[in-house]
Design brief:
The protein is α+β, with helices and mostly antiparallel strands. Helices cover 58% and strands 13% of the residues. The chain is built from ten helices and ten strands. The chain has helices spanning 5-65, 106-125, 133-143, 150-157, 159-170, 203-215, 267-328, 335-367, 379-396, 416-420; strands at residues 86-92, 96-98, 174-179, 183-189, 196-202, 224-227, 238-244, 253-259, 374-377, 412-415. The strands form three sheets. It has a five-stranded antiparallel beta sheet with strand order 2-1-5-4-3. A three-stranded antiparallel beta sheet has the order 6-8-7. A two-stranded antiparallel sheet has the order 9-10. It is rod-shaped and about 160 Å long.
Amino acid sequence: MGSPLPRLRVAFAALGAALLVAIGVLLHSALARLDDQRRLRHQMVAERVFDEAEREIGSLLQHEAKRPSAAYEPHDTDPGRWSPFVVGYYRRGPALHLVAESKLAPARAARIRRAVASARGTLDAAQPRRAPRAAVEAGTKEELIGQPSSPDVLRQLNRGVKVREVRQRLTEELSVVPLGPDTLVVERQSPDLERREGFVLDVSDLVSTIQSWVLSSQGLDSVAALSTASSRSPQRNVYDFTHELAPPLDSQRVFLRLSRLDDKDASSALYGLAALLATAAVLGLFALYRMVAVQVLFAERRNNFVAAVTHELKTPLTAIRMYGEMLRDGMVKDEATRQEYYATITAEGERLTRLINNVMEHAKLRRGERPMLVVRAQAGEVVREVVEIMTPNIEREGFRVELKIPESLPAVQIDVDAFKQ
């Protein structure tokens, strides 16, 4: 049977690989959670940008809703003072009249006429959406009566929702017809109910204006950009968000591309922690492998020692048994041969005694129970005794021992028995 160390190495290598894979999975999961949190933070920023955009759009619509009917008369006015996203104003009864038509570029006037002509059928079919002011106010008061629920509290605290509610109340009299992705026709009934008044709005210019008012004025145009078209090219460290405008512009969508903000998160610390954990796991496994390997090697040496001792015990016992049986059965007639056999049995017995003493000494050393009997003695004399004991065996093997001990050799502190061993 071979050594178990190769299999032990393979087992620890597989265990180490499994631990590293587990650490990698945990790291990936933690990074995914961090990425989700980062995206959530960017989504909160995007929602705030959309809320500000809704507030600005609401203010514009409120301004247009409160525009006096006299402003729609085709009198002399300067289109350069209009909002940059307004293509033009008009009023229509039996006929269509553009405000300041003489000062509009021909292409601009033609665009207004085409837009109104395209939206005319839808606008004529639209029902008046103005709600009685008293009903609206009563409804508002009713919502505040009684103990509010948590959604009510959140709605009251949410500025964007309140802006939408105000816009919903103030723009119910407006009819909006989208014409393609970039044009809106916004119209209302005149106070005397004899005509319709409205304006044509360019959505792209509106979003650009909101971009300038909300983001550029705050120095945020380098990290955030509003547009009317979604980007089809995803980029690294860039987040895209979509927002549907509140009524009456709910037919339009606004897209926000937000660059990754420089938020401090735990990603770098997480990488360091993962590296530290992996290093600790590898070092721990290596230390455990060394401990187990030492125990395995010790077990192998112990087994080898037992096998060697068993073999060494078997040799003298075999010799003693063989010579003893020969002498017992009277097979040796010569007295000199019998004396030789007696000497061999005695020598093998002594050898067996020494082996047993060695085993016992080894056991005592393992348990730390062997007492040390240290005395002051001449080391040369102890060596001479050992040589005298071993000389017969050495000469029997064909060797010769020469012992030279200096006379000036001093006495030393030794354990005589251990020194002889």
